[in-house]
């Protein structure tokens, strides 16, 4: 419904690949300022129609965690060409890892065992992509035990793009429990977001 009211140029200036993607993420009239064309006089009536639709709540998509029933502000997916969000993790036991290592660990506060591929390891922090669950792979991965998840980095795929400095509720798309997480946004550029101070206890 909102897509037909946008310019349809698919220029990407708003941070989305197409006007259709932009329409799916519109949640306030202020969001229209991301489009360089909607401020032109020829789209004034379209802006008014979009405002009426948004006020009725037609464009509001609820993002709800399956595990906890909590509502998230946005869902976080992988950056283009990647298989999952990037996670920064800190093993609680001393270890040495290298890029390409396959690891198994359990995030502190999460009952699910994760399998991941190490992107890089520096000063005790591993940047990883989730690659599991894996079956029949025993002996092919490093067992790390419990790890602290320090950060998530990815692309906002549904919901509003958050502002830097805000504490937010978000849903990592690769989360096997589909549980809402919380954290503080430390970087936001286009659709790319980095969230630190990760907490699974969302109130």
From TrEMBL:
Q: Domain of life here?
A: Archaea
Q: Which InterPro entries match?
A: 4Fe-4S_dom, ACDS_complex_subunit
The UniProt keywords, alphabetically, are:
4Fe-4S, Iron, Iron-sulfur, Metal-binding
Q: Which residue ranges does the record assign to the 4Fe-4S domain?
A: 1-52
Which Pfam families does its entry note? FeS
One MF term in the entry's GO annotations:
4 iron, 4 sulfur cluster binding
Q: Does the keyword Magnesium apply?
A: no
Q: What is this protein called?
A: Fe-S cluster domain protein
Q: What is the lineage of its organism?
A: Archaea, Methanobacteriati, Methanobacteriota, Stenosarchaea group, Methanomicrobia
